[in-house]
Specification:
CATH class: Alpha Beta
Oligomer: single chain
Number of helices: 5
CATH topology: Glucose Oxidase, domain 1
CATH superfamily: Ribonuclease E inhibitor RraA/RraA-like
CATH architecture: 3-Layer(bba) Sandwich
Radius of gyration: 18 Å
Strand content: 25-35%
Largest sheet: 8 strands, mixed
Number of strands: 15
Structural class: alpha/beta
Length: about 210
């Protein structure tokens, strides 16, 4: 995936984007130790969000709550970000729900929770990054609560409309107002780093 609309990400990495973002903001914006069923695939797009919440007997969500929330968020070309509600070891969705997410137009999925059926999800066009794989069905500890709200992914805040970039090294959350400048600086960083590596390998001084 080389570009998303007007944004060129060809040749960039999570590291260079993280470095570029650090020149603009001092808050933590990177997420590491993610798992993907499609190694080598890059995830990039604007975030739409669904927040999960710990189950409570006095706040029971209907079984179709996820479907309702999915209809409430923007789909086409977006990355769906699922906040695990403080339970990262819980499965949030599996193959059937991810198929519905893809059918809704989402091109990416990011969560600090776990996913089921990674082998099945690997066959989808959607690119997913998550906290790991689970075998038990979702719903033991958390349930979907709200859409289009701020969520937290492994300690990093994600707002609807932020841009998400993820590769094998990790994910970076880029504020919408800064995305063009951050990506431009990331390209410059990649060029400078490549030149420095080449010079070092040739034994030249910078």
């Amino acid at each position: 995936m080389g570009a998303q609309g007007e944004h060129d990400i060809e040749g960039l990495s999570a590291a260079s984007i993280c470095d570029a973002l650090a020149k603009v903001h001092d808050h933590r914006a990177h997420i590491i130790d993610l798992v993907t069923p499609t190694p080598g695939e890059v995830l990039f797009g604007r975030a739409a969000t669904i927040r999960f919440f710990p189950n409570r007997r006095d706040h029971h969500s209907a079984e179709d709550r996820f479907e309702q929330l999915l209809r409430a968020v923007a789909g086409k070309g977006h990355v769906l970000v699922l906040g695990a509600g403080g339970h990262p070891d819980q499965a949030l969705v599996g193959g059937k729900k991810v198929a519905r997410i893809e059918a809704a137009g989402f091109t990416g999925l990011l969560t600090d929770g776990r996913l089921r059926d990674l082998e099945e999800i690997a066959q989808f066009d959607l690119v997913a990054y998550c906290g790991g794989e689970a075998v038990r069905a979702a719903g033991d500890e958390v349930t979907p609560l709200a859409a289009n709200v701020p969520v937290e992914i492994d300690g990093v805040g994600v707002l609807p409309g932020d841009w998400i970039y993820a590769d094998a090294a990790g994910a970076v959350v880029i504020p919408d107002t800064d995305v063009a400048a951050v990506l431009a600086e990331a390209h410059a960083i990649e060029e400078r780093d490549a030149a420095a590596v080449t010079a070092a390998r040739l034994g030249l001084k910078q």
